[in-house]
Amino acid sequence: MGSISEQKILVELRNVDKEFMKQGLPEKVLSGINFDVKEGEFVSILGKSGCGKSTLLNLIGGFDQPTRGELHFDGMPVTKPTRRAIMLFQFYALLPWRSVLKNVEIALEPEGLSKEESRERAMKYIKLVGLEDSLHQFPSQLSGGMQQRVAIARALSIQPELILMDEPFAALDTFTRYYLQDELLRIKEQEGTNIILVTHDIDEAVYLSDRVFIMDANPGTIRKRIPIQLPKPRDRSHSDFQYYRKWILDEFNFGQKLDGLEFNI
Ligand SMILES: Nc1ncnc2c1ncn2[C@@H]1O[C@H](COP(=O)(O)OP(=O)(O)OP(=O)(O)O)[C@@H](O)[C@H]1O
After folding, report:
1. Residue 133 domain flag
2. Total domains, the chain
3. Assigned domain for 99 exists
4. Which of 8, 56, 87, 108 has the lowest tally of Cβ within 10 angstroms?
5. pTM for this prediction
6. CATH number, domain with residue 77
7. Mean pLDDT of residues grouped by 10 in the chain (265 residues)?
8. Residue 205 lies in domain
9. Could you tell me which of 99, 8, 90 has the C-alpha nearest to residue 54?
10. At 133, phi and psi to the nearest 5?
């Protein structure tokens, strides 16, 4: 594989606007969004609450349409959700009455696999996230971190090219979050899956990403694209890591006025 700069463009947004109707009037939530995500890239989107991050992910996933502008996935206009780009949420969306194995298998039903193929595929990804000893447990019997690993296995089992993650680790404690971040990087390397992550966690964005996009609000715009030029795995205590962290903190004026306390820093 070549360097990321030589990779093909997987996601492309050109002058994308999104408006919602509020009290009978259109309100612009996203304005003039332009960016590319290249194959192999890990991109994080950081911004204050309400700036339009989830709306942006929904557009990329085909769950909603831009009001204006163009949005392409692998060179084709995005018009509806596909199994090539899967969304992963903070609250795992597992079926409580199904075991770990069944929760993954059910996602495979539209794939048209035989029962054996489906079982084999589900097992592969359950093993990949280290849950092979919990196959027959139900979600209520698992910790939050384990439930998120089931959700990751389920998303991966569909073998998408892109996973769109909306604050997937926000509900987890720090150590579980660190652990799952490492797992995610390992899985990304192994499976070659592309990831676009929405997060409030500056440390998480610097740890995982090739580039961090910083959004402004009202209307949502991409203010800055910061390339994180550090080798992986990254050392959170290293001065280079702190350099990027400080850069992003400064972008949000944290040193000057503390009005954005929804961030984990
Ligand atoms: N379906 C909708 N109809 C009307 N307004 C919407 C809709 N979805 C989102 N909005 C509005 O768009 C704006 C951006 O919302 P969005 O959820 O994308 O922000 P966000 O940055 O993801 O916020 P948070 O970090 O709090 O999750 C908000 O003002 C929200 O009320």
Report:
1. no
2. 1
3. no
4. 8
5. 0.90
6. 3.40.50.300
7. 71 98 95 96 95 96 97 96 88 89 95 95 92 95 91 91 91 85 89 92 96 96 96 94 95 63 55
8. 1-84+164-173+196-259
9. 90
10. -85, -5
